[in-house]
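quick q for whoever's on today - can somebody do inverse folding on this one?? i tried earlier but teh output was garbage lol. tokens:
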């Protein structure tokens, strides 16, 4: 698994074999970032269910100002920290070993807001609608924020967001949502 674009392009990301993780395929990641590329520069990102940190590191590589990585798997957060150190981007990153809802509470308490959120939860969890509602209720998004979701067979109800693009990659789906004004 490699970083596909930006300043870190071609660098290898460690951790694609972590139990319980499912890294985003390169062609899916490339498509996601092609859609949001004009919104990344100087953004504050959240990589929720971060796994290896693949999406957040790609965002940093493409000019994001800061990225918060959240995963409840201690091995995953250890690997994310190792990747961040290897790429020398520690000043732009914060890694939280927390459950996603605890992390969202943490962001609310600390008044942290995001321009871009990457949501790639375990497919069987079906929590994306709940996360959309929580992001909105807790006012965790900056104006015109983008939420990028990867999922399978999940009915997403997001009354506070408009879908900008949706695409199928085999059995996987990617949705790019923008917060309504």
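ok took a stab at it. sequence:
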């Amino acid at each position: 698994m490699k970083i596909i674009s930006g300043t870190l392009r071609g660098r290898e990301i460690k951790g694609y074999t972590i139990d319980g993780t499912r890294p985003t395929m390169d062609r899916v990641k490339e498509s996601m970032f092609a859609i949001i590329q004009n919104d990344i520069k100087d953004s504050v990102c959240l990589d929720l269910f971060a796994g290896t940190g693949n999406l957040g590191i790609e965002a940093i590589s493409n000019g994001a100002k800061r990225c918060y990585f959240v995963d409840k798997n201690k091995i995953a957060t250890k690997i994310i920290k190792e990747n961040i150190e290897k790429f020398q981007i520690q000043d732009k990153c914060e890694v939280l070993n927390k459950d996603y809802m605890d992390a969202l509470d943490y962001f609310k308490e600390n008044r942290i807001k995001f321009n871009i959120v990457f949501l790639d939860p375990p497919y069987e969890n079906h929590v994306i609608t709940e996360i959309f509602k929580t992001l909105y209720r807790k006012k965790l998004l900056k104006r015109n924020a983008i939420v990028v979701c990867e999922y399978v067979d999940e009915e997403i109800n997001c009354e506070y967001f408009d879908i900008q693009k949706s695409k199928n990659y085999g059995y996987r789906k990617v949705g790019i949502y923008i917060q309504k004004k």
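fwiw Residues 35-171 form a domain with the Rossmann fold fold (CATH 3.40.50.150). also The longest strand covers residues 141-151. so keep that in mind when u check it
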